Amino acid sequence: xxxxFAVRENTPASALLExxxxxxxxxxxxxxxxxxxxxxxxxxLHALHSVLPFALPVYGMNKGSFGFLxxxxxxxxxxxxxxxxxxxxxxxxxxxxxxxxGETHRRLAFNEVYLLRTSRxxxxxxxxxxxxxxxxxxxxxxxLVATPLGSTAYNxxxxxxxxxxxxxxxxLTPINAFRPRNWRGALISSRTHLEFSVLGGxxxxxxxxADFSEISEVSxxxxxLDSQNPAVLLFDKEAPLEDRILxxxxxx
Length: 252
Prior knowledge:
Shape: elongated
Radius of gyration: 19 Å
Number of helices: 5
CATH architecture of the largest domain: Sandwich
Structural class: alpha+beta
Number of strands: 16
Helix content: 10-25%
CATH class of the largest domain: Mainly Beta
């Protein structure tokens, strides 16, 4: 099995690269059959983006602060764990953001896309689905769209719903909404095309973020799910991600 170990330098995980490479070999990304990350959830997300051109599965080992998307970190019996691992196909969001100066940027997100104010003034955002205006003006810190995979992350912190992986839905969640005061978000079909228009963006600058990629001073953001190009995550058979997400809904 040809493995590429993705380990960030100068982190607690970096000490494991040499023993892992010695035990199982290390090949360049373009020659690998799969990628093993050592770190936290951030390392897994970075790997998911980097392997898209190569269509490689990603297996994470937890050596970071958070490890929701990772497996136990041990060098022993890694090949057996990889061969028996549960495969999970996940689909990214596509964000197309237009800035105040007219530039357009396309980014992918496996967790979430969000718009967030960058000044002391609240953001003002119009929200549309499939060409229909739903909220003429959302006033607050911002708004986010989360996949089922990302629904336990920032979305959950913003009091959005946790979604089962097979829900075929997205969570549309306000971030500290001031108006409409009673709006708590929406569950929408994964086939929905979302559009966000920033109102008064010169006075109230707003950025758009897709996972860890930021676009400053946006005027318009479109978000949809790419159902044609999945990435694959690997999980130990005794700890599938579906069980973890279900457990999150009952945690106190």
